[in-house]
Amino acid sequence: MIKLRNVLALVAILAAINASSADEQSIVLASTTSVEASGLLEHILPQFTAKTGITVNVVSQGTGKALDTARRGDADLLLVHDPEAEQQFMDEGHGSTRRQIAWNDFIIVGPSADPAHVRGGSDCVAALKAIAASQAPFVSRGDKSGTNAAELRLWKMAGQTPDLLIKQKWYRDIGGGMGQALTAASAMDAYTLSDRGTWLSFNNKRSLIVAIEGDPRLLNRYDVIELDPRKHAGAKLAAAKVFADWLVSSDGQQAIGAYQVNGQKLFNPSATSPK
Amino acid sequence: MVATAIAAGVSLPIGAALAIFRFRGRRIIVVLINAFFGLPPVVVGLALYLALSRAGPLGPLALLFTPTAMVIAQTILAIPIIMALVHRASERAWARYGDELTSDGATKLQAVPQVLMIIRADLVTAVLAGFGRTISEVGAVILVGGNIRGLTRTMTTTIALQTSQGDLSLALALGAVLVGISISISATVFALAGGARTAGSDEV
User: What ipTM does the predicted assembly reach?
Assistant: First the structure.
């Protein structure tokens, strides 16, 4: 019994230390790996914190996991990019408002040797068909992220069934973030679907090149979702709203649009004219 | 660091006590501790994640995605390692000196610190092993800490992140620093413990 009491006392002390040291004004933002890995949040968050004093703690996960984290009540705000999964989240009553903040596009990247002969095209579905036909290696995120969901939608358009795809030897489901998928693709000379932001800020491209871009079906939208107080009373919704409002404000939109890597704009602000 | 200290604080007396006291279920506990030696960090992370989640039993403490959650995870991971090593050393010491230690009328409880004194050089190894576990751990801390920049990002999780972003040189540099820290800490501790080792438990 003494042991149990000690453990409980320890937990209580730790909780107290944590409560006293933690900034009152801090929120947990569950976000996708792409906005974190692309460096966007690192670029805009200091501006927001300087203005409002609110610290945003970013937990970057795939969109699917980020939504689950919020469902469990472990996040105060969401920044994600999977329209279908987001709609489901809203339908379940977890979210109160959902607003688009920016867009960019997905691209299909692949080895410069281009074994499936798809380089330079803009039809992503035709390209996936060619990749499947030539059985060229393809890396899938396999992590229920927004990019993974987009990839599976495109495969369906190309006449493939996701359940059968994972049995194919050339289809490599790595279960990891965007950066890991790019790392794997560059190591295995494989094709993969990437968001443009992560691709542009990725530093280990080796022989990877952009094979397909410019297809309207490759649109990638980022939404900020506030949680419904009826389901998430414990979340810091007021501070979360301040951040959500800032993201769509002209200040926030300007900060997003100003973010560049190697002179290239990664995200197109779109709060006023959602795509 | 904090995790290692807490883990050591808990493990040292219990490890020694397990060697000295005889009671029912002792063997099972010893077996369990040794089994937990190889406790997969992700499993600890997952269990703790579920417990600390706002929807979980310890949810009201709001500890998920905080440094405290990481300390708890690392403490849980370090305890079995330290405890098992302390227990083994204590058992040997107790077998050798047990009768002497209790012959002057001292109770078994009073013998616990005595045994710990005898095996103090082994304690260094045990604590270092625990420290090695906490400093090199990624799986559990990334789950319960969330790898939040400036709050719960550790050197190991930074290395994982940089590698995934393709910044291999930065990841490698950080790895070198981490290994350097590890080596220098253990070198320092062994240098400090050098006196103790020659004076004490070389017989063990």
Answer: 0.71
The predicted-structure confidence for B97-145, as pLDDT tens digits, reads as follows 888 887 777 788 888 888 888 888 888 888 888 888 888 888 888 888 8
Asked whether the CA dihedral B189, B190, B194, B199 is positive or negative, the reply is positive
With an 8 Å Cβ cutoff, are B55 and A73 in contact?
Answer: yes
Residue of A nearest to B76 (CA): A7
The pTM (predicted TM-score) of the whole model is 0.80
- Decide if B165 and A179 are in contact by the 8 Å CB cutoff: yes
Helix, strand or coil, per DSSP, at residue A200: helix
Is residue A13 over pLDDT 60?
A: no
Domains and CATH numbers, chain B: 2-203 (1.10.3720.10)
Contacts of B196 (CB under 8 A, 6+ apart): B120, B121, B124
A chain contacts of residue B146, beta-carbon cutoff 8 Å: 28, 57, 59
CATH superfamily to which A22-104+220-269 belongs = Periplasmic binding protein-like II (3.40.190.10)
Architecture of domain A105-218: 3-Layer(aba) Sandwich (3.40)
Is B71 touching A (CB cutoff 8 A)? yes
